[in-house]
Amino acid sequence: MSSPPAFRTAIVPAAGLGTRFLPTTKAVPKELLPVVDTPGIELVASEAAAAGAERLVIVTSPDKQAVTEYFRPQPELERTLEERGKKDLLDKVRRGPALIEAETAVQDRALGLGHAVGCAEPKLTDADDAVAVLLPDDLVLPRGVLGRMAEVRAKHGGSVLCAFEVPPQQTSSYGVFEVDDTDEDDVKRVRGMVEKPAPEEAPSSLAAAGRYLLDRQVFDALKRIEPGAGGELQLTDAVALLISEGHPVHTVVHRGGRHDLGNPGGFLKAAVDFALEDPEYGPDLRDWLVERMSRS
Ligand code: UTP
Question: Domain Nucleotidyl transferase spans what residues (predicted)?
Answer without folding.
Answer: 10-273
